[in-house]
Records
---
Amino acid sequence: MSDTSTQRQGRSLAGLIPSIDFSAPRHRAKFGYLLLAPAVLLMAGIIVYPILLSVNISLQDVRIARVGATGEPWTLKNYAWLFGSSEFWHAIWVTFKLVAVVGGLSVVIGFATAMLVNQKFRGRTAVRLFVALPWAVPEVVATVIWAWMLDSSFGVVNWSLLKLGFVAEPIQFASNPGAAFAAVCFVMIWKGYPLMSIMLLAGLQSIPEEQIQAAKVDGAGPWQRFFYITMPNMLPVVGVTLVMTTLWVFRDFAIIHVLTQGGPIGATTTLSILTFEQSFEFFRMGQGATVGVITMIFCAIISRALVGRMAKSVH
Amino acid sequence: MATVEFEHIKKNYGGVEAISDFNLHIEDGEFCVFVGPSGCGKSTALKMLAGLEATSGGTIQIGGRDVTELGPGKRDIAMVFQNYALYPHMSVRKNIGFGLKMAGMPADAINSRVEEAARVLELTPYLDRKPRALSGGQRQRVALGRAIVREPKAFLMDEPLSNLDAKLRVQTRSEIVKLQKRLGVTTIYVTHDQTEALTMADKIVVMRGGLIQQIGSAEDLFHSPKNIFVAGFIGSPGMNFFHGRVETGARGPVTRFGGQEIALPDHCASVVGRDMVFGIRPEHIRVGDSGPHVGLSLVENLGTEKILHFHTPGENVLELDRTVMANDEERDAQTMLIRVIDDHRYNDGDTLSLAFPVDKIHVFHPDTHEVAR
């Protein structure tokens, strides 16, 4: 850009925001705020407003909420219903079970695969691609495929189990509560572990090679190197990964909805499924919004606790 | 305590030969330095000794035991890394004691050994800190502590001073030498800095392109370099080189420098009529009353000493492959240096007469780069 055009631009900017030199130390921060403003406004519009809206709805005794309609008077009726309802406590129990099983296993599997593809071997790129594949498939597409494979009448999973003699009759993934929960866990782990693996691989690659070499010279075997060097170095990354999995499992809707619709008899009804049921199946939007608000509070507490812990353990 | 022996060691990466036929014997308690420009194979040689890299051929012995097929933990060596490689999540105490813990030593025995090592290295006040709360020099001492506490057969050090600032480097250099003398442990030290090599080593191994160029003491390398590379690499500023034809003068062999005769060592009588490469160190050129005249192009005053630059006479300019002169980046073949310590005031453009003492002139074959004797 030539000098004259820079000057011209400077003059026209000066016309808009009179006499502030943003390169001056005193004004530098202001320019930052100016750049952030559009993003902040956008977030306020698409994140903060809906949150406030759902808090508002949760405080009203409405069946179908209409934006712009004259609001009902605020009441705690929905919350009273919620804490007295066995459905809600059951959904919390199911959600935490799911978080524990899916979160735990996908971190373990993700860690193992990350360690595997962190080794140097022929065809490593192909294996890395293969590990990441489930993550790349759209969630609904993947779940529909799994729903078909897990079908009790013509699913390939039952067919294989029968042929191999592991089961005597087909497993009823749709009607057996235990089997349905296991199927949801399995598909969620299948879908969720690749991201864990990718993040943990990045963490593994950031461990200085010389630390591992120093441990080798110090006489540490493979297990000792894992427990004394790799694990402590990885704790911050594992922390972030756990937060992400936990929040994902808490909020995920598509997999359960497509696979089991929360059934049978509520065996896979998590908080997000319950929100949907109340709002769009039973059309009690006030109660649905209440479940949503409680879910949000849980998520906020969990992420705060884990992020805080993790920040402390960063070296 | 142990001797270290490399026998016909080779290392290939794919088709590329990084080290070929590396033979070296290091005496018990000796301080041996591998020195050379980057990519010369010195770190690879050290890593093969440590067991961190596999050899492609040959055997390595430590204390008379063949360790070629053993892992790093079974070779009874300790290593100090360039970036210290401390374990960031462990306290200084645990860092130093880690090797002993891996060896299965009881906790109280580890503790007394660690305290002793910390006392030697003046680290006692820092034992319960994490490495991140230490300065660079202190971290370096922790890395040394981790090595000495194990009482290994040999210390391996991979450019341990290169992350320290200049002043601390000089200080730590002498501390390492004193420590090594006191403990008497065979030490193999890798550096690209020839000053470190000259000041620390009992034995220096100069390497280039995966080949040993010369093995010897600092004296040997400085006064009797075997080839142009060693001559140029050792010493700072590096040796001056020029080329010329050997002729027969009135009192023996001579060559011409800027048109004037310069006397050469007697052994040059055997190469009369041939073009040779001549080398002379900047501190050996004498400023006198007679001899070739040169005009100074630059005078660098360093306080005690002065470095005088002058252009090599056109017919004497030596065209050498840059890689041969890897140590001397600021140097070009057209310029020669004189290092003087005197009270005379030199100015750019002054004309001086130079004398080249005959016993300080090194003569090399231009094709093989080997010294002519």
---
Amino acid sequence: MNNEPIIEIRGLQKNFGSFTAVKDVSFTVNKGDVFGFLGPNGAGKSTTMRCMLSLIKPNAGQIHIFGKNLFEERNAILAKVGSIVEKPDFYKYLSALKNLEIFARISGAAVSQKTIYETLEFVGLSGREKDKVGGFSHGMRQRLGIAQTLLHQPELIILDEPTTGLDPQGIIEVRDLILRLKHEQNKTVILSSHQLAEIEHVANRMVIINKGQTIIEGSVSELMNAQETILAIELLNKGQQALEFLQGKFSAGKAVLISPKKLELTIERNLVPTLNASLVNAGFEVVALEPKRTLEDFFIQMTQS
Amino acid sequence: MLWKNTYNEFIKILAKPRSYIGLAALTLLICIILFAMKADGRMYISFVTASFEQTLSFNGNILNGNLIAFIVLQMLIVHIPLLVALVTGDLLSGEAAMGTLRMLLTKPISRSQVVLSKLIAAAVYTFILVIWMGFLALMVGRWVFGSGDLIVLNSDGLVILNDADVLWRYGLAFLVAYLALLTIATLSVAFSAFADNSIGPIVSTMAVIILFTIIGSLDVSVFDSVKPWLFTTHMASWRSFFNDPVPWSAIWESIWILLAHNILFVAIALIQFQRKDITS
């Protein structure tokens, strides 16, 4: 990861008639990022992603990808981008192999038959290449969609809701796939998702948009750590003593005893290790420390404020 | 990239069952006409020639392959536009409906190349339909009914064309008929650029053909200045090749008007598709 910007979006605006879908969206994705793109339904995520792929022309704003203006050097940029927007759709009357051959042919790179088979194997569709896509399950189409994005070895991968409609196993598979793309192939990935836990698991940076505007952008860990969290502390015993020990020590908030062995207090996430050390040094036997504040809480706070 | 995507278009057309509906329907219709003519053709011909028999004597094989091909062309040229629109009207809008247009346009291929590759595929498909119709009507017709002089009844009376003088006329007639059908193909692709569903452009194309044909056939002076410019007026100009002498100036006029319509429809398709937001 470094600070070389791959995508720079500034002041993006898109109107559909009198309706403003995107008002003022700006963010930067750096090389090697797995970048989470968050927002509630109707926030303008899909419109922004479609603008990034030149499917929709914005009314105002700048989109630079790989340092080039998207609307001046569209083809050169898209040759280095792989994407799924909303859901991957294929020619149902053709086989998986024929579909990939069609998209490979216009990908801007020379994609060999061997690469197509290897990519199918990478996404776990080996052996199904001759089957018609019409008979594929949603999960299989999703994986074929990811195969389609990878065929031409793109530097940037844009995934819009890649886990929508997948079962838990499928979600884990896609999550692993994204992590493999990052770690094994050093790809830059931008993904939007309603599965906020997914973003929390895989993304290192994120932006939250709401009502067509950027709310916050930054490193996931920094944004999360800068926020207060409710920490549930489970002890082997001495809950009351621990409560008295903690009062006033960590300034964020008052500790509350939930049960004889369990208490909660509000604390900044980056102070959790210090609190743990203090408890252990004071002779308390800590069974578990569980931050109850998740990205979901953060997301709700950001989008409702 | 244009030719790569054109190749893709051929793969898609070949794999789609609806592409074969036109060819199958043509084959079936021509076979029915050939069968009917074989079974009852003499009576059909005598009905046409009856009014001339007081002044003319008809000898030889009048019901021959050349006449059968002419009858087939007359009967089917009205219906083939529907078979053409069925495939070409779906080329852009069908992809929008399926969601594959979104996938296609995230690739490094320009929108004009996408439209042009589909137009090339539409032109080739239409050409194959015309060639197939020509083969069945003329070649199979000549094989089943034999060859002979062609007798054509037109508004000026009977035209009798020598057997040796017929084939070149058919060749050129098929080319002009192809140009007329190509106009239908480009019109439906232009409609297709506006729509996100398959059926709309097909219905719209047929609606325009029906509307223009009705305007063209109405004997009302208010439309007199419009009629020569409607492409439907020139759809049957292939028939002019079976006049003697051939009215070349009228044929060239039809060709230019049909070409102008083709250029107009292609331009509309290119401009509309270029500015279209892909929200499907």
---
Amino acid sequence: MSPEPSSSDRLLAVDRLVKRFGGFRALDGVSFALGAGEVLGLVGPNGSGKTTCINTISGLYPPDGGAVRFAGQTLGGLPPHRRARLGINRTFQSPRPFASLTVRQNVALAAAYGRRHGADAGPADIAALLAELELDGLAERRAEDLNSAQQKQLDLARALATRPRLLLVDELAAGLNPAELARMAERLAALAGGGMALLVVEHLLGFLDRLTDRVIVMNAGREIFEGTLSEATRDGEVVRVFLGGEHVG
Amino acid sequence: MLVHALLGGVIYGCYFTLIGLGLNLVFGVMRIVNLAHGDVLMLGAFAAFFLFHLVGLSPFIAAPVVMVGFFLLGLPFYYLVVPRLALAKDAEMLSLILFFGIQQIIEALAAIVFGSSERSIPGRVLGVGPFHFLGQTLSRAWVIGAAIAAGAVIALYLYLYHTRSGLLTRAVMASRDEALASGIDIHRISARAFAIGLALAGLAGVFAPFMLGSVTPAMGVSVNLAAFAVIIVGSLGNPLGTVAGGLIYGVGLLLMQTYFSAWADLLPNLLLIGVLLARPTGLLGRRVRLA
Amino acid sequence: MRDFLSVGLPVVAIFALLPLVYANQLLLFNFVLFLILAQGLNAIYGFTGYLPFGYVGFFGAGAYGFALAVMHLAAPPALALLLAGLAALVLAMILTPLLRLSGAYFAIANLAAAQAVYQVIANPALQDITKGPYGVSLASVFAPRASYGAALLILAGVLALVAWLRHGRFGLALQAGRDDPVSAAMAGIPVVSSRIIAWLISALIAGLAGGVFAWHISVFYPETAFDLSTSIFAIVFTLFGGAATLSGPIAGVILLYGLYNLIGISVPQYFQLIYGALIVGLVLFLPRGLASLLQRRGVDVP
């Protein structure tokens, strides 16, 4: 194994991140780093802070402590639309399309507003992206008329339309059938192969297993384990948190 | 003069608490903006007027009659309108428009049935002579209005904090979804709160002829603005916070009338905007997440 | 632009020709005025979801901006009209923080703001400046035909604007922010600043409408300029036809304001009753307006 590069060289460095809601510490000093082309899984019981972590990195919540560095830049209170233009994007646990717009408009807007300045998207670009995510047949439908699996594809298409360097994936697999799952895993793996960094929050460990070997296990806003998925399943504390029903904290 | 303005403000403010109380309860439980609240109050005032002039009932007896009547009307009315509204994507905003429509209907019907002339009830039915307190002379009607309002606040507090139904009502206020998930019959609880809200508006209406001057079908709009100022200043969605709003409003109004009478009408609006802008989260919660 | 050519331009042309065959120019003017106001309200409510209950505040600010410019600066009507728009724009800038509020809070605060502006302008203490509650008379610039023409020009501009909002990048971004502000931000859309632009545009339109109103009728009182039913009419017309479309608010104005003039003038209470019932029925059974009847069948309503 090659030595771990220092976190400042990595695309994303999360350093002792804290997020409080009232007196509740949803994130309590989480740190990790992620390089281009890497996939990092984020697992943990409900309420352990995974989605809060993604929301804070994507700028929906300002952090109450710690820092998020992206491509060498400390993000601080940078608003989400500026982060999108820097190359950070995400999908949502339950899809959040622009309901009254068509599928094509959903994607075209993200391409128009979400890319770094100068990177323009032509109609052909958008058509190719829609085809890749099997949305080409639905391009002129209003997003609210899509079923939930299709809306998940749309969420992903919209995120990809901004050409992200870091993609935060929040439970994309839930609700997909086995064939869809396999295709989605392949697709994400291909994105990572193309140099994109992926942070994947996932309950389905089988899905995660196809993507990455490196996971972080969270509980009560803290990281309790970092390593491979197979080690994690043998780790005493991880097993207790998942199976014991008694959440630490 | 200052003592009189302060004391009068507190007493007058109690009545304004009563005006806002039902509106705030309805908003807290249902997230519905009842723009017809002032018109329900107007109906209460007309009920008191006719009960007095046709049947000879004093307002003290008219008050429970009106409250029970409005409560019983409120239940079916809730089921007729609100569950359907709750289905919509943007229910809070649509409720504003819907209840504006209802307000128009009530106002139009009242104008057709009652005519648009000003009505009043002679003040002597509440008893004769002013009260004296701390060396100040206070209008008898104001003191009685304040006492009734205080009684209503205490009764609502007892309902919310010392009955099972009140406990469930607070659960719905805290989180509608969680309440639904834990098996609470939301509509039964909400219908009750809605009906109580109407009954409180009716009660305020019974004493409106003495507190607000004469009664006309068009009085609802200005009552609404005052009621909104009271509940927004006090804390929207928190019925007992209305008390703070009512007192601030009452004292503010009397101080303005004493020292800047030409600009006194501006007060409710400035108070409302000022509080909303200064403390959109603290006092009220809920603001746009991305702002 | 094709919506503007197919829907907007014909409407303007019809109202340009109608005075030749129909003598009641004041009524025609009022139709044009409400077409402007309904589309102006559409620009903020339809495209961002913010319901400005106090929209009339901008209209009144425009009317008084025009009047003050004529009375105190002896401005010619064209300049006074620009100042009317500017007055509303400045008011909207002052009120921009209201956009931090959501839903009902915004609507109520906006209503209170409109009332406050009215109370300041109508205050007898300011009689030397605004003529307070006694109203203004602008007989020196009275010119019904020119002001009708100006109203038509404003209408044409506003219709073109809404047509652009429906299909242009900026308007789509606004709609995305209305549908879901969080995912719109993640798509790179500056949700807050684009909303503010829509707010200013919408206020500017109402200000111009108020200015041209002041010019056309030339004698008015503060309660006419700040009549709350102006807001309500604009909201209901827009909602009835279908917000965020170009043709919906037009249909709403023609049908409902037509109905108002058939029955409302002689027996206002009965009209108020019908109107109230219409609103209730609309919200409960057709919350997305007439346009949604066609949209449900897959028709792209212009």
---
Amino acid sequence: MTSYEFLENIRTVVGDDYVIAHQEDLLVYEYDGSVDRSMPGAVVLPADTDQVSRVMRIAYEAGLTVVGRGSGTGLSGGAITPPEGLQIAFPRMNRILDVDTVNRTALVEPGVINLDLDNHVRGFGMRYAPDPSSQRACSLGGNIAENAGGPHCLAYGATTNHVIGMEVVLEDGEVVHLGGLAREAAGYDLRGAFVGSEGTFGITTKILVRLLPLPETVRTFLGIFPDIDSACTAVSAVIGHGIVPAALEMIDALSIKAVQNVTDAGYPNDAGAVLLIELEGLNEEVDEVSGEVEAALWDTGAADVRVAEDDAERERLWVGRKTAFGAFGTIAPNYYLVDGVVPRTRLTQMLRKVSEVSERYGITIANVFHAGDGNLHPCMLFDAREPGVMENAMAAAAELMEECALLGGTLSGEHGIGLEKKEFMPLVYTDADMAAMQRVREAFAPENRLNPGKIFPDGSYWRPAAHPAALTVGIYA
Amino acid sequence: MVSAPDRHSDAGEHMGGGIDAGHGFPYGLPFEGSLNDGPGFAGSDAPAEADLYRCVHCGLCLSACPTYVETRLETESPRGRIALMKAVHEGRTGISDRLVSHWELCLQCRACEAVCPSGVPYGRLMEHTRAQVQDNGLQSPELGRLSRLFLRTALPHNGRLRLAGHLMRFYQRSGLQQLVRKSRLLSLLPGDLAAMEAQMPVMGRQFFGARGQVFPAQGERRMTVGLLSGCVMPLMQGDAMRAAVRVLQRNGCDVAVPPTQGCCGALNLHAGDLELGRRMARRNIDAFKQAGVDVVVTASAGCGSSMKEYGDLLHDDPHYADAAHEFARNTRDITEFLAALPLDTPRGQLPWRVTMQDPCHLAHAQRITEAPRQVLRSIPGLDLVEMAESSLCCGSAGFYSLIQRDMSQRLQRRKIDNAAATGAEVIASANPGCIGQLEQGLRDAGSDARVMHVVEILDAAYQAER
Amino acid sequence: MTTTPSIAGQLAELIGPSAIVDAGDLGGYAIGQWLPVVAAKPPNADEVAEVMSWAHRTGVAVYPSAGRTSTQLGNAPARPGIALDLAGLNRLVDFQPADLTVSVEAGATIAQLDEALAQDGKHVPIAAPIADRATIGGTLATGISGPLRSAYGLPRDWLIGISVVGADGTQTKAGGKVVKNVTGYDLNRLYTGSLGTLAVITEATFKLAPAPTDWAVILAAFDGVDSAANAAQNLQSQYYAPLGLHILTGEAAQRIDPSMGESALAVAVSGGRPASMKRRVEDTVGLWSPVAGTVRVARGDEANGLIRTLTDLPADAETPPSMCVRINAPPSALPEVLAFANVPMGNLPPPSVVADVGFGGGRLLWWGDPESADPENVATGLRGIQSAAGRLGGAAIIERCPDDAKVHFDVWGEQPSGMQIMRRLKRQFDPQNILNPGRFVGGL
């Protein structure tokens, strides 16, 4: 097969309009939500499993590398495709195939948008719990690849807790089914291993997700604190009280300022930090826990505690949280954010480190993050057009990741390792640990054709090749 | 372009092995075309770097974009179009027909702008990009022809427009149109001309003219408002204009319609003709200044959106910068204006089921969605039902429907289907382009439903009091 | 293979004679009729690694165990080998109540962990029969779950970090000590439920939940499985749906509540805080009373006892069932799962059914003497159940049956989709096939 024949062959499968091979068009498939950039050799947009399988088979025979792409919102470079590679993108496979109210499941294609699924199933009195801040744009297929999180993962777990079955195309085009309607099956939990494998094991073509019934009551609190230390203490107090809220988010003073620049989310401008806390459940349960949450907030030095009066007010509080990263544009043109996790009791210590690093490197750092599960998002704000500032930010990021590891935490809570963090893997895993992981990849993709060069350190340096003014990592977290 | 740290200067490459391809064709895949060395962006009207790099390619805009939703192609998304602008800005590629085709498929509905968390001024970026395209003579032939024929020759001149309008009305009402359509004459026309005939706006029975009238307020006089009569709206939707005047009068406004005003320039600006647009803006600023009005009201969302941006447009103009800002500050969409008043609630019953279609330039560009609904809800007996995707573009988008017929019709059908699903007998809108597009869509679908401007519905409610 | 004394000798030299189990006690490590040649009981992970390195060098098969409450699970061992007893690794390594995490060695028992966590009002909601013997490592390796699985999920959902010794003696870990982690592949889930065929689990880290302060078990007798199923499904769709909801028939029902007669028994287990518990119990009773024969509420110690009995049904210490089949099926297959209660199998009477309403599937249980049945006949019946379960979109795993029946079929049922990946996994992790050979699906 010549390379021209290759393109002709995949055109025969998906149709002329859905193979993109002109460089001027490929310009728009060279990025995702991260800093990384690389123009793929070609992009193909299949319409169904059969097309995916046939395209994969042809690529396999041609010896090509294949990289999957959902909506291109990822923050670790997972969808970045090397110039020699074929990118297989899923926006056309966006059908919700079935909603099963008895088993509380939905069967969807990988290009379905997270929020579209949630909105759809709410019509049936259910919901899809994982809610990454990019949920308006990100796809379920991408969510599986990254094992995406979100604020409500505190109570309900990340994507892996909600995906019960998958149809997957392997590197050679073979279609296999992992997991299924019955929640347990004999054999290894291939489904569990697959979720979060960052596109290196296979390409998902159908997804069976678990849905949760809607809660009877939702109550949202805004805890207002004079400084970030007392807000951290409050987080520990709430969790230590034996309360695991549905969501527990922290927004620091700088982020409050940024948010309020863009939209009135109802955060007080003079607060040192606010906590956004959501409780869900039976009326009686929420009533009972509410009192304890409020007490814990007051006890730890809250200046004020407010409760959202209605859906509109709750929505407003959440809009502030979910648009925070975009709002940083009002403070500086660029930002770079770290996705480290520490044990919850180390939050205060970690945030002190953040502020110390901020001072030492002379970089402004804002903090908006999932405090309830210790998943930080220190966000460096800068103007990349100043010489050397990007190197400075990267060095600061490295130091923060090291500190997370030192405090017993890890590199990434929900964004994935991808290209961006792969060289930091030795901070948390030994060579033997990583060798064991590589064995799983060998089993799924013996030829290593799927998204190679990601996750594991290989000494090569993938250059964040974006225009300097564009060095900004995503707006979600 | 700014000086870049070394490691970022070599865009798109990786070093030290990077991703191990290890497989595949020795020379990679065969690109079917390369980045071109055509003209880049230049001059003071080029898209601004600060605007371009506010886009952090997060993708939140994708699902709001009508052309992306229809095609599922990143090239037809706001994020993709900005990426193409960035590539030109960075000098990686020049402007080419291919790039232009992606930019021209944009409806400029600005739905993306409304959902962008980074506040990217997409509308401004696209106008400036199209200006660069026009400066380099790289518009598509369709847009070029239309631009010469209409945007430059007719729109700025009310007299020529009226003449054309009279001819069209004669053509449509004399039976000539039916005759021509029955004959095979149309098939002799080049494709796009025949299509233009098909989409020719239906002229109103009676035109509305700006002759310097001042219509007096009823009851206690609150203020004097200037009403934009604009270009095509008085011709196509004279009834809506008259309803607007009556509704304003009823709510205590003297309504001035200055004679020297003209087209707001929106269509020229959208097409990238910034200079002509600026001339038209200056004319309107002068006209309303002379009329001494408190606020300028328009019943056309597209015009209002442009007029509110006169400040930006003329910010470099030493003579007009201040006046333009003041003009922009004092401009109101008529639904916005009415909702902010203590509106004189109609007492007449209007037992209609109505669904609101949000004009892009009202909902996205001006972020006004509640005001028209508030006006409609004030009408006794009226049942306001929401349609799905109420703020997704109907495909009209100025002259878009003439140039991008296929996409325009796809979006039109989508809109009509969504409206029909509500069972509404009236589709309310607030923009002449949308009204025309929806009327045609309803005709094509053989529907009995009607399209009315929000003020026409309010006017009908006032009439029903008698 | 070398002779027995020399194996014991070699191991004694490596990990010390005190870590070698007396030959007289080997019977305790029987898997059916199979006996190990030696049983090693190393006191820590380093010594486990020594044993595995040795096995890697010599090619001797290793059969890990600890509480030995689930040795019935799986096919017969493929060849002779040693037992690797992990009960010596029983320390609570690191309990951080404020972080809601705990690290514990694999040989610690469920009861031991429960007790430690309860001091601080926390729990890891995993459960296995015979909690005072069943270990953390065994629970993870078998992937076994308790009656509250529909609300709390499976053991894999609580595991956030794991340490293992590989087939070549290399010690590795995956995950970590934080509750949210996407750093590297999720090997936690791969090891969970792999029946010790990929690596030997030595330590686990779990996330914790606040333990309910109040428990109730609501029992309702129905005149038949259909009315029980309707009532149960109705309860499952309420806001106050319980943590676990089961329908029991026959002997299983009798064991939970002998006073309820021969009818179908619905059992709802609720837990929570006092204020919500009042509502949960009252509303459940209110919902069921009009449709059930009798409704009874057990609280406090009685409730806890009933939950233990329910957990232990598949394998209690004194009078375990002679046969136990786990049906994996979606919740919508509830009527079909209950219908197994009416199907006789070979010479055996119809089984007693425990159907899990919220989670789907359930168990078929037989008490009484299986020896009287012809092994081939038993195997034919069990195979029939396996194909019937397959038709429900699930599978049947034979958790317990006479050893001589096992030679006639695979207790794990049909080979699952992705079997070729599983085989490659096994080859990658254990190329010499020394870990628990022969016992898992399709001989993995």
